[in-house]
Amino acid sequence: MARNKKPVSCKELMLGREIQEQYDRGAKWDAIAVDYDMSKSKVQRLAKAYRDDCDRRAYQHQLALFG
After folding, report:
1. Which among 2, 10, 3, 4 is positioned nearest to 46, based on CA atoms?
2. Per-residue confidence (pLDDT) for residue 15, from 0 to 100
3. Which class for 9: exposed (0-12), middle (13-18), buried (19 or more C-beta within 10 A)?
4. DSSP annotation of 9
5. What pLDDT, on the 0 to 100 scale, is given for residue 67?
């Protein structure tokens, strides 16, 4: 059985968006981790959670348009 993922809070999604925006502007993961006083893996996890949420919302929106 697959393990259920812990749901991501709105606060974590907002933080993930900020992190992803910094990365998109060219900042390195290590520098972002220092800025937020977090580990590199946690910073990457938050950014991935934000990207996954964006993908999920886009897919739901697409289903509503064509479903």
Report:
1. 10
2. 96
3. exposed
4. P
5. 63
